[in-house]
Amino acid sequence: MLSGLPDPLISAVPTKIIAVANQKGGVGKTTTAVNVAACMAAAGHRTLLFDLDPQANATSGLGLEKLEGASAYRPLLGEGSLQEKIQPTAFERLDVLPSEVDLCAVEIEMVRGEDHLKKLSRLLEPVVSSGAYSAILIDCPPSLGVLTLNAFAAAHGILVPLQCEYYALEGISMIHRVLEPIRASGVNPGLELLGVVMTMFDARTKLSNQVVSEVRQHFGEAVFETVIPRTTRLAEAPSFGKPIIHYDKYSAGAAAYEVLTGEILRRIAPKPS
Ligand code: ATP
Ligand code: MG
Predict the structure, then answer these.
(1) Which atom of ligand 1 is nearest the CA belonging to 161?
(2) Which residues line ligand 1 (CB under 6 A)?
(3) Chain segment 19-74, per-residue pLDDT in tens
(4) Do residues 102 and 108 touch, judged by C-beta distance below 8 A?
(5) Does pTM surpass 0.90?
(6) Distance from the CA of 171 to the center of ligand 1, in angstroms?
(7) Rounded to 5 degrees, what angle do the CA atoms 12, 17, 20 make?
(8) How far is the CA of 268 from the centre of ligand 1 (A)?
(9) Which end of the chain is more exposed for a tag (fewer CB within 10 A), N or C?
(10) Considering every ligand atom, which ligand is closest to the CA of 161?
């Protein structure tokens, strides 16, 4: 960069950190994190996908191998920085902080000091202040353990995918239960529920429609207008290491995630003062 001139790659807008979470397994967290991150990047926003789940599905879904030592594990235990773990992907403007199975040991090994929930938040500070990203999406594991709570402590908002199935509401009631203590304890007073996205919607079933209307009654405007359909293309894409917009650009799944990303970008845009 020429000194004195602003670097066009460095965003003037503060980085937004979004935790994609639901303690229920298999509801579409990783699919949502990978595809929203890819759509944000494709829309011109420099985006970091932070894989915080030891299963490392987001890492492989973006075409990266799960490599020992590549994750946030060591930095969370006090060795090294997160920046040195960030890797580029094959997709423009999209970087990844990969995961690997070792990360699960963090739950046990992280010293439970008074501020053990703020570890991730502090490690992310230099990444945020570098201005390198408009958004950081954190793919959380299916639990409300130390890793997820660290993501909540670092995030501006939580994005909750809910599967269109009978027990959908269980996932969100737990999140509501931890949201308030996280705010009230001062760990993260500004934490917001960014929104709820209904996933794996099957228009042919009565149940899908019933669940969506029940969830809308409960959560009103917190629920995104866009509903993600159940499609095989979305389920196939990760095995090719590609987000849906790069795997099958004109599919229903790609269209749904593009429209959802538009809604999310409007919600996180700085409000005019
Ligand atoms: P975990 O709790 O294990 O991390 P998760 O909440 O991250 O799971 P995903 O991995 O995104 O959930 O999705 C679970 C499974 O459902 C995966 O095999 C995924 O490919 C598939 N899937 C997710 N969304 C859709 C969809 N809209 N249509 C079809 N299959 C989907
Ligand atoms: Mg997952």
Answers:
(1) 6
(2) 25-31, 53, 55, 57, 142, 199-200, 228, 230-231, 234-235, 238
(3) 999 999 999 999 999 999 999 999 999 999 999 999 999 999 999 998 889 999 99
(4) no
(5) yes
(6) 15
(7) 150
(8) 24
(9) C
(10) 1
